[in-house]
């Protein structure tokens, strides 16, 4: 095994304003505003706060002509005040807005689920981007695939890849290489599988487009950080990823230091990222190596388990290699020591190092050895990593969007209120989404959904079905609890 260099997947250079993305450059950190893009003053102020926190790229949603046009004022204000931050417009449903935004910003993100490749729209946008030196992101999201892709492939990683490759082939046909691609999901397993499959598909066709990583709707607090770190870390450990966004349901500037910590953590490694998978490995297969069905935390350790500890700078590669070299299928507890004093740093690093071993079905137990943390903090982190890796569900999972200019209520406070009343529930996923336009699709496999329908109004979902529309916001959490009770999913707190 050659441990002499850090090797990232080869990706060509894409310029987003003055930020260069690609494997020759540091991984770029970005975030997104949640102010109304039609409001210049608040959007400029928030973009500055995100830039001051260290993000080189800031994205703003442009849901309509008004917001698209106002990007001109926002960019002008920022430049006047000396901010050279790269600005990205996020376009979902109205292709016409992409061509408005492309007059003002450095990159335009389009969702192939809402765009067509058959009517020349994409070619026209590419021509416009080429003329002004604007980059493009093909941003596929699990839960918002085009109907024709969904009908053939379902809401699967394969469908996501088919969708992205269609668009990338048009970009290549047009000889336009200033393109970044993303495959986000709130489900870390889907997300990791989709990116790995995408990279394989691009390699087969000789494409080297840079990759933007992110876990959507990760939530907030330590849990949101762990979920992002599991997904993003799994791919960085594979050498995949040229720019990242950690989505949190918090003020956007909070996302930046978390993303930077992840970037620095991988940058500081000395060894090569060896990507060794089990024999016959396929990106969309999840096969458990042992017969342990529910992985354990270290306080539950028994003699049955073999403890494998990593002390190297490449824990993921070292642990993966050690497990794959074992001759037996004896259960394995993976262990790693973290000297950091903050729970956040330990959580992020442990999630990034160890989560992928659970996503890949290789590990059966987790031991986060962190002398500065209490036993309870360590237990919570271990359980959250197992949950984020989707192998053991010990508490309610919140699929909460990070909010953006479309958000119709105070999502940060609402998430805190819903958590305070439901976090004791087991095996339940609750989606808390800012808008009805993207929310229902992107909360994907949530059991219940709380979705902004209009200003001050909430629509509740059971799975993908609407059960109550336009409830006044002040009453909506009570209605959600009643709905959970009516479906027999409620337990009283212990
Ligand atoms: S669900 Fe709606 S409000 Fe939330 S981030 Fe997505 S587009 Fe914005």
Structural key phrases:
19 strands; eight-stranded parallel beta barrel; five-stranded mixed β-sheet; single chain; 494 residues; disordered N terminus; 19% strand; globular; 3 domains; binds iron/sulfur cluster; 15 helices; Sulfite Reductase Hemoprotein, domain 1; TIM Barrel; alpha/beta
- Compute the number of helices: 15
Our measurement of the CA-to-CA distance between the termini, rounded to an integer number of angstroms, reads: 50 Å
CATH-defined fold name of the largest domain: TIM Barrel
**Number of distinct beta strands:** 19
Largest sheet: 8 strands, parallel, barrel
- State the fourth-level CATH superfamily of the largest domain: Dihydropteroate synthase-like
Mean pLDDT: 92
Based on CA atoms alone, the radius of gyration comes out at 22 Å
How does the helix and strand content classify structurally?
Answer: alpha/beta
The portion of residues assigned to helices is: 25-40%
Which ions and ligands are bound to the chains? Answer: iron/sulfur cluster
For the record, what CATH class of the largest domain applies? Alpha Beta
Number of domains: 3
> Per DSSP, what share of the residues sits in E-state strands of 2 or more residues?
15-25%
Order of strands, main sheet, comes to 3-4-5-6-7-8-9-10
CATH architecture title of the largest domain? Alpha-Beta Barrel
Low-confidence stretches: 1-5
């Amino acid at each position: 095994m050659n441990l002499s260099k850090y090797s990232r997947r080869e990706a060509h250079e894409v310029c987003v304003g003055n930020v260069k993305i690609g494997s020759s450059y540091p991984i770029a950190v970005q975030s997104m505003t949640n102010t109304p893009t039609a409001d210049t003053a608040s959007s400029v102020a928030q973009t500055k706060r995100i830039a001051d926190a260290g993000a080189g790229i800031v994205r703003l949603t442009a849901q309509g002509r008004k917001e698209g046009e106002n990007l001109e004022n926002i960019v002008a204000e920022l430049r006047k005040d000396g901010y050279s931050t790269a600005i990205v417009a996020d376009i979902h449903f109205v292709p016409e807005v992409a061509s408005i935004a492309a007059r003002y910003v450095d990159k335009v993100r389009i969702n192939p689920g809402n765009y067509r490749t058959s009517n020349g729209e994409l070619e026209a946008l590419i021509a416009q981007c080429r003329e002004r030196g604007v980059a493009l992101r093909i941003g596929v999201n699990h839960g918002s695939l085009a109907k024709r892709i969904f009908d053939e492939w379902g809401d699967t990683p394969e469908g996501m890849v088919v969708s992205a490759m269609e668009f990338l082939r048009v970009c290549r046909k047009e000889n336009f290489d200033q393109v970044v691609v993303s495959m986000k999901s709130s489900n870390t397993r889907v997300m990791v599988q989709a990116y790995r499959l995408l990279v394989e598909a691009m390699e087969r066709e000789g494409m080297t487009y840079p990759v933007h990583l992110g876990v959507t709707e990760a939530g907030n607090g330590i849990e949101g950080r762990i979920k992002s770190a599991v997904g993003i870390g799994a791919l960085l450990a594979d050498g995949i990823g040229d720019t990242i966004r950690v989505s949190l349901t918090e003020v956007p500037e909070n996302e930046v230091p978390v993303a930077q910590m992840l970037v620095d953590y991988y940058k500081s490694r000395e060894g090569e990222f060896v990507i060794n998978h089990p024999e016959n490995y396929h990106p969309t297969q999840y096969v458990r190596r042992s017969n342990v069905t529910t992985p354990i935390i270290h306080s539950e350790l028994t003699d049955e388990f073999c403890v494998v500890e990593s002390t190297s700078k490449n824990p993921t590669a070292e642990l993966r290699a050690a497990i794959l070299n074992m001759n037996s299928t004896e259960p394995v507890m993976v262990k790693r020591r973290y000297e950091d004093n903050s729970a956040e740093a330990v959580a992020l690093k442990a999630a990034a190092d160890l989560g992928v071993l659970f996503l890949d079905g290789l590990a059966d137990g987790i031991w986060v050895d962190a002398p500065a943390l209490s036993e309870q903090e360590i237990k919570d982190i271990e359980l959250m990593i197992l949950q984020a890796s989707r192998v053991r569900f010990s508490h309610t999972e919140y699929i909460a969007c990070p909010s953006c200019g479309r958000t119709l209520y105070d999502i940060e406070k609402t998430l805190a209120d819903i958590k305070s009343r439901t976090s004791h529930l087991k095996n339940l996923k609750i989606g808390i989404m800012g808008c009805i336009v993207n929310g229902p699709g992107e909360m994907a496999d949530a059991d219940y959904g709380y979705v902004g329908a209009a200003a001050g109004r909430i629509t509740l979902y059971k799975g993908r079905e609407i059960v109550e529309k336009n409830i006044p916001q002040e009453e909506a959490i009570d209605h959600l609890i009643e709905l959970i009770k009516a479906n027999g999913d409620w337990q009283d707190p212990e």
